[in-house]
């Protein structure tokens, strides 16, 4: 089913918002939903999010939901760990 993207969807997922991509979850191999920060809302109902380890993912806005407080805290902790361990140039 194709979901119509509304202006409320776009406003809810503006740059910097924490979002969870529920389509990324799989049972086999087990992968949880991806939590990321919105980088950009693209045309046609697409959104680019950045994951805590600095990988970008592009997904449909209709596949996102707002992250919970716990999910935001886990994202922030993972982003700090990644920043502390990545090589300095």
Keywords:
89 residues; alpha+beta; SH3 type barrels; five-stranded antiparallel sheet; 2 helices; 5 strands; 26% helix; 29% strand; globular
Which segments are poorly predicted (pLDDT under 50) over 5 or more consecutive residues?
none
Q: Strand content of the residues, in percent? A: 25-35%
Overall shape: it is globular
Classified by CATH, the class is: Mainly Beta
Task: List the domain count as a whole number.
Answer: 1
Please provide the count of β strands. 5
Query: What is the distance, rounded to the nearest whole angstrom, between the alpha carbons of the first and last residues?
Result: 46 Å
CATH architecture: Roll
Overall pLDDT level: 84
Helix content: 25-40%
Largest sheet: 5 strands, antiparallel
CATH topology: SH3 type barrels
Secondary-structure-derived class: alpha+beta
Number of helices: 2
Oligomeric category? single chain
How is this structure best described in words?
With 89 residues, this protein is an alpha+beta fold. The chain has a single domain, classed as SH3 type barrels (Roll), CATH 2.30.30.140. It is 26% helix and 29% strand. It has two helices and five strands, in the order αβββββα. The chain has helices at residues 7-12, 69-85; strands at 18-21, 34-42, 46-50, 56-60, 64-66. The model has no long low-confidence stretch (mean pLDDT 84).
């Amino acid at each position: 089913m194709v979901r119509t993207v509304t202006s409320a969807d776009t406003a809810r997922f503006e740059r910097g918002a924490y979002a969870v991509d529920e389509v990324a979850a799989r049972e086999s191999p087990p992968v949880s939903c991806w939590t990321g920060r919105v980088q950009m809302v693209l045309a046609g109902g697409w959104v680019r999010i950045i994951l805590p380890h600095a990988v970008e993912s592009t997904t449909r806005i209709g596949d996102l939901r707002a992250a919970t407080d716990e999910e935001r805290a886990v994202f922030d902790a993972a982003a700090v760990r990644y920043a502390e361990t990545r090589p300095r140039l």
